[in-house]
Amino acid sequence: MFKYPDERGRFGAYGGRFVPETLMIALEELEREYQKALNDPAFIQEFQQYLREYAGRPSLLYRADRLTRYLGGPRIYLKREDLNHTGSHKINNALGQALLAVRMGKSRVIAETGAGQHGVATATVAAHFGLSCVVYMGAADVARQALNVFRMRLLGAEVRSVTSGSQTLKDATNEAMRDWVTAVNDTHYIIGSVVGPHPFPRLVRDFQRVIGDELREQILRVEKRLPDYLVACVGGGSNSMGLFYPFLADREVRLIGVEAAGRGIETGKHAAALSKGRRGVLHGSMSYLLQDEDGQVLEAHSVSAGLDYPGVGPEHSFFKDQGRATYTAVTDEEALEAFTLLSRTEGIIPALESAHALAWVVQNISQFEKDQVVVLNLSGRGDKDVQQVAALRGGGELNAH
Amino acid sequence: MRIKTAFQTLKDRQEAGLIAYLSAGDPDLKTTGLLVERLAENGVDLIELGVPFSDPVADGPVIQRASQRALQAGTNLLKILDLVAQLRAKGVSLPILLMSYYNPILRQGLVTATELLATAGVDGLIVPDLPLEESMELRERLRQKELSLIYLLAPTSSTVRVRKIAQQAQGFIYCVSLTGVTGERDQLPEELPHFLQRVSRETTLPLAVGFGLSRPEQMPLIASLADAAVVGSAFVSLIEQNPEDPITPVCNLAASLKEGLGRVRGEG
To answer: Among the residues of chain B, which ranges form H helices?
Structure first.
């Protein structure tokens, strides 16, 4: 499992490089520069220093005793990626790719964003490294994630609202790819998840694996053993990949990826590419994909802008077929309940994305033994979602709880 | 065979070719069929029919909108192939290429898709998101049916890539004039002659230039540098502006573009 991707950028049947010819040169350059950077101790050291001193790593591993008692369940730990600078795991990848962009002499970076977490992380590193920055965001997401739009603009990035298609993450990614095709000579595209053409899925995985690497050390220190379950939400799949990857060889550790079932899998209004998709090509790689019988990509649906995407990272597709990870889905409603639950029991407001992972634990609580150890990746904080949840729930209902 | 014959005829006549791109099914397939028949009579040498796709990342706004309209009208690959078969039955003999993103082809399965293309009378396939490295299986399947997979080269293609792609290319090579997406531009890029020289050094196949071309006055330069011009967004735009009767303005544009391509090669 560690020999992937192969030299063609494939994870088994998945991955690859399905892009216009114009971009091939940029992908070849990126692959070459990344390989060089990996062999350069100064690069690795600088990346680690930024993670420590700028992002605030290592992120804490917190034992959620109140939540555990409330659920009467296993010992639940939260990997607190929400405490990173900018409020999510996205900063890990943004820092790594910004350092690469600087090495490659690029003066401009672009990004796509759904919930805005990756956009904020990219705008942040662009400000720090003095790069000009454009973030593409679906118009529907601009409306539901207004706080993050403001943050990006404050950081000096230009936020371009994308009005085509479903006006969400998929369409923002299309527009970012069009920008890259046009401005490839001076621009690096900081893709925010383990998606896109090779080498992006590998590169983003490598920059995110710090989550799982830290966790291994932390859990061994407190539990003297590895966890029974690792649980994370999956949109494109970068926080889950970062958590899972260092544990691939530890077969006793069960890996659970939780997709967005939106209004319910049976309604067709969901974002569960791994659960309900078929093999296809979108945004540069072969992977599971929500599509119709003509090969048109379907619009995804999720209350969580960060999971509202019809595709998924190719390595997750590979894990699914290999049976190394299990993928499942929870609904908007279940995620919203988990959002409130964590806020009330632990005083931690999770991102709606991360709330999906917790919702799976709640849903399956009767299956766990009390002495089992479950680690949830709390991939981001929920400040950005408060306004949207208030609009959905109404202040009254929240108070009456 | 039709592609080869078409370029040979052009060469004999000392003309450069006009390749017209239409988004199939915009505003409906019946209109697309009529347009193809009339364009064949008005100077167009090869036709490229765009298969609409939900996520056309290599296209600018004009073709994006046309794709959306075509999808809303219920257009899909199978219906486009029906149209091609009908046109062939009526005796339309110019080469017809399909331009499709990879997923609609992949969804049919490469074996089935290739069979269907051949049966319908399609001559070649252009897949803007399928670079050489990912294309070998499709290329081989098409070759077995005597269909061409048309490769694209871009100004950013390195010399090594130009050579590799030229070695594998069939029919003609589609040279993307600029670094960007499809759509009309005010000026041709300054580096275009240099780019086309880099390509022609590596191949004896005809070169077609596309992306950004829209005006008759751009045609003589293209004719002096290459074997054909591909014009897309300008036609699609006229169809968008004249949904009731697109045929007259589209044919007028084709005729004046072709005028700029005729009998100038070697004189320019």
So the answer is: 2-12, 29-40, 61-72, 77-89, 102-108, 110-120, 136-144, 159-168, 192-200, 219-225, 233-241, 247-261
CB B148 within 8 A of CB B142: yes
B153–chain A Cβ distance below 8 A for any pair? yes
Say yes or no to pLDDT of A397 above 60.
Answer: no
Q: For B151, name the nearest residue in chain A, comparing CA atoms only.
A: A21
> Using one digit for the tens of pLDDT, what is the confidence trace for A176-202?
999 999 999 999 999 999 999 999 999
Tell me the mean pLDDT in the region B8-33.
97
Give whole-number Cα distances, A314 to A97, A115, A235, A283, A349, in Å.
Answer: 19, 21, 12, 11, 30
CA–CA gap between residue A278 and residue A174 (Å, rounded): 20
B134 in reach of chain A (CB within 8 A): yes
Rounded distance between C-alpha atoms, residue A36 and residue A33, angstroms: 5
Strand order in the sheet with B207-210: B148-150, B124-126, B96-99, B46-50, B17-23, B228-231, B207-210, B173-176, B152-153
Among A8, A28, A282, select the one facing B103 at the smallest CB separation: A282
Check whether the bond before A199 is cis (ω within 30° of 0).
yes
Rounded Cα–Cα distance for residues B215 and A56 (Å): 56
